[in-house]
């Protein structure tokens, strides 16, 4: 919600050229069913005031029902409401316009009849309207920034050179980050530049629901077969290095899908049971070496690979590790 509020202020300032102020409204007096669906803010654009109603359950939003709900709140003037959301279906936006209800979807559309303003996003590039799960490439870009390796605005071409993806793939990653309101993408001339919104802890928490476990499969092989591959330790092996957790019985490593395909062609033997001299090999959906930290897989990917473990010792070790990086 904090990121959406920041995005709203930034977007309105940019497109209206007016001073924008946004402050939360204490809503302790709201009935529970309303406080679960809406968050209220005082929004001032120039000299015009609104009650900005942030939608907490966008999928359940119905304009007619919404107006009935707002009329149950004595402190609100229905004519001064501005709906704020991450996304809304086209038919819902059309219905709001028909009813004269102001709304803003940052970076997508703004309808403010009190100011005589309506602005739609440019068409031409097919951007996703929303992203439930980031692509592996987008996750790499995000973690690369969290590791402090992107400290200025960069273009898709610059990212492609640093991360080994195509410029087109990096362009799609910028789209995913932008529509998720985690980063701001500006066009300067013919170039697109990305800037992340908020500090690393805020961005990480906002992005976490969209992030994936990088491990697509785990195989067991003889450790002697890995001598020439120079792989990064992963899993509990890496976590024990970054916390007080004891080392596991079998060392774990990570490699990319492409590297695993090459390894498979060497007729490497997979061992189905625990045996002395074996190790675990995690096959990742992106190359762990791109993000490696001090000879191990990066802490953010490591957290994502272990966050669903039910062992309390692992949970405590993960918390201990993340405190070092956020």
Written account of the structure:
With 326 residues, this protein is α+β, with helices and mostly antiparallel strands. It folds into 3 domains: 2-120; 136-210, Arc Repressor Mutant, subunit A (Orthogonal Bundle), CATH 1.10.10.10; 215-323, no CATH class. Helices cover 35% and strands 22% of the residues. The chain is built from 13 helices and 13 strands. The chain has helices at residues 2-16, 32-35, 63-70, 90-98, 136-146, 156-163, 167-179, 200-207, 235-241, 257-264, 288-291, 299-306, 312-323, and strands spanning 20-24, 38-45, 48-55, 81-84, 102-105, 109-112, 117-120, 183-188, 191-196, 215-222, 232-233, 252-256, 278-284. The strands form 3 sheets. A 7-stranded mixed beta sheet has the order 1-2-3-4-5-6-7, sandwiched between helices. The protein has a 4-stranded mixed beta sheet with strand order 10-13-12-11. Helix 5 crosses helix 7 and helix 6 crosses helix 7 (167-179). The mean pLDDT is 87.
What are the defining features of this structure?
alpha+beta, Arc Repressor Mutant, subunit A, 3 domains, four-stranded mixed beta sheet
What's the alpha carbon Rg, rounded to whole Å?
24 Å
Write down the overall geometry.
elongated
In terms of structural class, how would the helical and strand content be classed?
A: alpha+beta
Biggest sheet details? 7 strands, mixed
How many domain modules? Answer: 3
**Helical segment count:** 13
Our estimate of the beta-strand percent is: 15-25%
Oligomer: single chain
The end-to-end distance, rounded to whole angstroms, is 19 Å
Could you give the order of strands across the largest sheet?
1-2-3-4-5-6-7
Order of helices and strands: HEHEEHEHEEEHHHEEHEEHEHEHHH
Instruction: Pick out the low-confidence regions.
Output: none
What is the mean pLDDT?
87
Count of strand segments: 13
Helical fraction equals 25-40%
